[in-house]
Specification:
By secondary structure, the protein is an all-beta fold. It has five domains: 149 residues, no CATH class; 109 residues, Immunoglobulins (Immunoglobulin-like); 96 residues, Immunoglobulin-like (Sandwich), CATH 2.60.40.10; 105 residues, Immunoglobulin-like; 87 residues, Immunoglobulin-like. Helix content is 2%, strand content 48%. The longest helix has 14 residues. It starts with 6 loop residues before the first helix and ends in a 17-residue tail after the last strand.
């Protein structure tokens, strides 16, 4: 679950919305104003006048007054239904979109960052809400919350020297600069064969030094690289980054150009993985005809960012004698009748923004005929999956727990579970054997897996199969420290009362809070048995200096990182002493 915003900040905006637009207090008779176009990872919505966040999926409508929240590593694109604009919301952000009575759109960026893209030249009026006031936005812009809570707006339509890439430029020779890779608003893709991102540009005078400052925090570009070439290979893991380019004239040593803050998304290339057939699969059929055929199903997972698929099936390992050579613009499984024999197959994929397809590993499957097994007992669905979680978490070592059922009972002497990494199609499949209807096994690494089960009899014949099942295994991180709201030093009232407020921590099911005095002794503390409480009152504190400690507790009872804040309880009343009026006595 993504970290929630404070009740105060969201409440103020929702309150403002209700007072200004009283007719739109629920979605019952309300028309949607936008639609969710694309989602990566976990994204939530909070309808107007609701207290609960709900998961949202592509294709769902968005109504005026709704807040949209992204978690770490997640993103979402929102398209307005009139086609005027779209909004790309960055990870760890919260936005609210509104529509006034005169059909004007507004956006309130409450946390994080977002990009507003004008999809039509006559997109109409669009406002940004800043400190309760509306500011008109013209054209495309990138928005972000500054460290002090202010709204920073970066126009994407104009720039220094006539080049929208620059924020400052003192050398006109940079006016022709163009960033060729990575492409704007497209993910840079990496995989096990390519761990670097190519950054390529043109239009920089020879000998100029280019400095790349990059980081995961827009306010702290912690890494820096320099080159005099027109390209640089960034060795970075998948994630969401911000960067700037600085250009230095070697003759003067002065920086003569600075780019605007740019966004870079690096994603792992998710190659399509075969669900059917699988590597080295041995298919047994019983058929007494002279020319037996087997209806072979070719099915595979849908790869991310794939724009074209190429399936090749041949009777030789070099794939020269093809029986299938199928190009598809989208995932589309199909069946074909094949004679008994050995077959070799491969999937290639063309990814978005790339010109050369990436080919997978050549695998083999075999169709065999006339094995002595009971034709009435073999088949898919004779093994069915039990109630297992598709997303499982671990602490020390990644492992997967599975349960299943069988219709054949004692006819099956052993179950063979095959695990294939969906993230790394080149990795060898992992096989687990069990005589029971359940197993818990360690896997090579966290990630996405495809599992299938075969049941064999005492003669080592496969007599039952299961459907494929997909699992995701993730490490259960420690809960990050909650964000305590307010000044760096919290000040109690003259009566010794204090309200401590915080933002909810991602993954916290409970909270531990305590007050520590200057001697290091706990004077007050509590375990809050709730995931949604965002404040606590301390009353009748004695004068002095204290320290608040606040930590979240996860589902396993582990206490996460501790947030601290200094507390000052005044020794005297804040009321001024009464003044004595001078009297003249005669």
């Amino acid at each position: 679950m993504a970290g929630m915003i404070s009740a105060i900040s969201l409440g103020l905006v929702v309150g403002w919305y209700f007072f200004s637009e009283p007719e739109n207090k629920n979605n019952t008779n309300q028309q949607p104003i936008a639609v969710i176009k694309k989602i990566k990872e976990e994204v939530d919505r909070r309808p107007a006048k609701r207290q609960v966040w709900q998961a949202i999926t592509p294709g769902e409508p968005v109504y005026s007054g709704e807040a949209i929240r992204t978690a770490k590593g997640s993103e979402v694109k929102i398209q307005f239904l009139d086609g005027s604009r779209s909004i790309d919301i960055e990870p760890e952000s919260i936005v609210m979109i509104l529509q006034s009575a005169n059909k004007e759109f507004s956006l309130d960026l409450m946390e994080g960052g977002a990009s507003v893209i004008a999809d039509k030249a006559d997109a109409g009026k669009f406002n940004l809400i800043q400190n309760g006031k509306s500011v008109e936005l013209k054209g495309a812009a990138t928005l972000s919350k500054s460290g002090n809570g202010g709204l920073e707006i970066q126009s994407e339509d104009s720039g220094a020297g006539g080049n929208p890439f620059f924020t400052t430029m003192s050398d006109p020779r940079l006016a022709g600069f163009k960033l060729q890779q990575p492409l704007k608003d497209k993910s840079a893709l990496i995989d096990i064969n390519k761990s670097t991102v190519d950054m390529v540009w043109s239009g920089v005078p020879a000998g100029f030094k280019t400095k790349i400052s990059i980081g995961t925090d827009r306010n702290n570009l912690s890494q820096a690289f320099e080159t005099t070439n027109f390209q640089f290979d960034l060795k970075l893991p998948a994630g969401f980054y911000f960067y700037k380019l600085y250009f230095t004239n070697p003759a003067t040593g002065q920086v003569v150009g600075e780019s605007k803050l740019q966004r870079l998304k690096i994603d792992e290339r998710k190659f399509p993985v075969f669900v059917s057939p699988t590597a080295n699969q041995f298919i047994q059929i019983v058929n007494q005809s002279a020319n037996p055929k087997y209806k072979m199903l070719f099915d595979y997972t849908e790869g991310e960012f794939v724009t074209r698929y190429l399936l090749e099936v041949a009777t030789d390992v070099s794939l020269k004698n093809k029986v299938v050579n199928q190009t598809m613009n989208k995932k589309a499984g199909f069946e074909i009748d094949l004679a008994p024999g050995d077959y070799f197959f491969r999937m290639s994929a063309l990814f978005d923004g790339e010109t050369k397809p990436v080919s997978g590993k050549i695998e083999k499957f075999t169709i065999s005929v006339n094995r002595k097994i009971d034709p009435d007992t073999i088949g898919v669905n004779l093994i069915s999956w039990g109630e297992v979680l598709e997303q499982q978490f671990y602490i020390d070592q990644p492992e997967l727990a599975m349960t299943w059922k069988s219709e054949l009972g004692r006819k099956i002497s052993e179950y063979r579970i095959k695990l294939q990494s969906q993230d790394d199609p080149y990795a060898p499949a992992q096989e687990v054997r069990s005589r029971d209807l359940q197993t818990k096994t360690k896997v090579f690494k966290p990630g996405r897996y495809i599992a299938s089960i075969q049941g064999v009899d005492q003669g080592e014949n496969v007599i039952a199969n299961s459907q494929k099942r997909f699992f995701t295994i993730k490490e259960l991180d420690m809960v990050k420290p909650p964000v305590i709201l307010g000044e760096q030093v919290l000040k109690a009232s003259k009566d010794g009362d204090l309200i401590v407020k915080w933002k909810l921590a991602n993954g916290a099911y409970k909270y531990k809070i305590r007050m520590i005095d200057e001697m290091g002794q706990q004077v007050n503390g509590k375990l809050i048995e709730s995931a949604t409480v965002e404040s606590m009152n301390f009353n009748d504190l004695m004068p002095g200096i204290y320290r608040i400690e606040l930590a979240g507790v996860d589902m396993l009872g582990r206490t996460g990182e501790v947030a601290t804040r200094k507390v000052d309880v005044p020794e005297v009343s804040s009321l001024g002493a009464p003044k004595i009026k001078k009297l003249k006595v005669k």
